[in-house]
UniProtKB/TrEMBL annotation:
This is Translation initiation factor IF-5A. Residues 85-153 form the Translation initiation factor 5A C-terminal domain. It comes from the Bacteria. It comes from Streptomyces erythrochromogenes. The keyword Disulfide bond does not apply. Residues 1-21 are annotated as: Disordered. Residues 1-10 have a biased composition (Acidic residues). The lineage of its organism: Bacteria, Bacillati, Actinomycetota, Actinomycetes, Kitasatosporales. The gene is eif5A.
């Protein structure tokens, strides 16, 4: 036999990607797409008909899922665009300490700390419902290495 070392080691740690490619012509309203480097929920998708020699183009309008800013973009129908992997998880609010939320996953029992209380109306509504003694569930959206509270409901 030969003295060849057959002990293989993976070149890097396997992990999921933050985005995946998708054909621009297959995007639909309420889906997600990366616009100007920001993960956005599509509010309007329209396709412009091609001229005699032109390409069919897709006009996209979206709202940033974290900041609410409006973005617009245009792509040829046959080109690929990047779609962010967006994960929405619901947690039970157990406490608020110095502007940060203490959360527990209902199905997993996983405790989460360090997620900031959102600013504006959403943050004030969460605080007032929690102070009133209601059971509060918050929706945490994670995409592109960021996470933030994007909704809530009181019981």
């Amino acid at each position: 036999m030969s003295d060849v070392d057959l002990d293989f080691e993976p070149p890097a740690e396997a992990s999921g990607s933050d985005t995946f490619p998708m054909r621009a012509g297959t995007l639909r309203r309420n889906g997600h797409v990366l616009m100007d480097g920001f993960p956005c929920r599509l509010t309007d998708v329209s396709i412009s008909k091609s001229g005699q020699r032109g390409q069919t183009e897709v006009n996209l309008t979206g709202i940033d899922i974290f900041t609410g800013e409006r973005h617009e973009d245009m792509h040829p129908c046959a080109h690929d665009v990047q779609v962010p992997v967006v994960v929405l998880t619901e947690y039970v609010l157990t406490g608020i300490d110095d502007g940060y939320l203490s959360l527990v996953g209902e199905s997993t029992g996983e405790a989460r700390d360090g997620i900031a209380l959102p600013e504006g109306t959403l943050g004030r509504d969460i605080e007032s419902d929690f102070a009133a003694g209601r059971g509060v569930r918050v929706a945490v959206t994670r995409a592109m290495g960021r996470e933030a509270v994007t909704g809530h409901r009181a019981e």
